Amino acid sequence: MTDFHIRTEGRSGRITLTRPKALNALSYAMCRAIEDALLTWRRDPEINLVLIDADGDKAFCAGGDIQELYDTGTRGDLAYGQRFWRDEYRMNALIAEYPKPVVSFLQGFTMGGGVGLGCQGSHRIVSDSSRIAMPECGIGLVPDVGGSLLLARAPGRLGEYIGITGSRLGPGDALLAGFADYFIPEADWPALKDTLVRDGSADAIAEAAQTAPEAPLAALRDKIDRHFAGETLRDVIASLRAGTGDFATKTLETLSRHAPLSMACTLEILHRLRQGAPDIRKALELEYRFTHRAMADGDLLEGIRAAIVDKDRSPRWQHTLDGVPATAMSRMLMPVREAKLQFHEEERAMKIGFIGLGNMGAPMAANLAKAGHSVRGFDTASVVVDGVEPVNSATEAAEGAEVVITMLPNGDILRKVAAEVIPAMEKGAVLLDCSTVDVDSARDVAAEAEAAGLLALDAPVSGGIGGASAGTLTFMVGGAPEGFAKAKPLFDIMGQKAVHCGASGNGQAAKICNNMILGVTMIATCEAFALADKLGLDRQAMFDVVSTSSGYSWSMNAYCPAPGIGPHSPADNGYTPGFAAELMLKDLGLAQQAAEGADADTPMGAAALALYRQFVEDEDGRGRDFSAMLLRFESRGRG
Prior knowledge:
The protein is α/β, with parallel strands linked by helices. Helix content is 47%, strand content 12%. The protein is built from 28 helices and 18 strands. The N and C termini lie far apart (86 Å).
């Protein structure tokens, strides 16, 4: 007997999992066969509906074959798992985007890979026996197979809770969280399946649906939303530790058994997916970044060992609950260049003109070329970038390009370049400026571009030279939604997050507001360390208190200015710039320029500007990281 039975019946394509003794676990061969059948039926005019079910009463599908992942991974064969995930995720996307109804009957356990097969379709049916879960964080993975998208769409903070606790959802909770659509008692399933197969229509499902049982999680919503509202795993853990009652205690106990890196990355994935209009491909892409690295850089092999192989239930995770470095998360969620996740009917390559191939622009253009896009580049200096065709002028780079990207030093140069390239661009093309410039310049250039029939975007970046090389930049984007949608595939290549901030100029506004906060908080952080020194307070003790208390900030927790304290930062490398002090000075100047134009009172921003101007122009700050401000305060008194 095979592990599955694929056939056509009436007006329907049918897929039945037939290995109940193995809880219908999903194998690689099953994924490929199901994908092939779905592709065939998609083109078949005689097939109007796809029905997916499983034999046995214990499980629809309790996940994938993780023993095989362990066996191949421990032998050093990482390619098997990476290929499995690529092909499985392509199948998941095919189900989620399928043009015909896909009906799944989810009895018993539906977990892991079973969620990708059974919960991505259009009509998901549960019964009293249904138990749906995403338990991946318990073995060193993240909720995948598109499950992160379902979690991101769940009400309130249910997604965070379900995703990192691995909580099992009965039928009521599955409906509440968006993992299922209909409750129908299993006794009614045979007759309903016969109707679906005969008619090739899903209309009978709604007629057969009944009121679902209660959802226990509904009564916990207030607690879940309160404790899981934080930005990071550290925030969630701190909230639970400060909480009282059984919920906080039991939840913290559950999380203490799971892989901290997996949980931290799960929260980050969910937060990214809530930006803009997430879809299944974006979710799978983020999941794949993690799973591709899960065996080499994550905790997957250790998690499987403890749960399945040795069964000692004592995994030795890389990190502690509140000790996951931001750099570790960033590394796990960087785009995968060497084995790109592809989908059916993949986006075609674009023609791109790139103007400004400096320290930031060159690696950004190189990443676009590596992803298969046709890139022509121009810079006033003679620059050679792998994969980028050099041209002799900005105009030549812009001619025939669907997207023209600029990365320039200031607003005056942006205006000059825009005046040159806008007449050379075809109507409907995107002018995408990634420079950090003043808001007025961004809006004036956008107005000129729009008058010429172009789509204009201002998209300054955060992440520095390292982020440009690694493809982990954050883009703050202003401009028309249709322009953002057209450029979105490029943002996904060059960065890890792109936030649409509204109309033209709002990207620059977001960047300067963000960096004004950063400049102010870094000064405050440096002042506090200098004060702690003079009060005889150990720096590590101060960090341990502040980083988990109300003084928490990115400047303290992720970019600590004190050497040897917290995650590795430029302070540990002699303050070699990650973000130079003179660039902070520039951004603070732009913020004050904007504040004057908007008649906004920003005394802290003005004070930060004055301090950084003194630090860069009159002291020894030029050429050093902006966190080197700590050295200034160490040697100064109040006089």
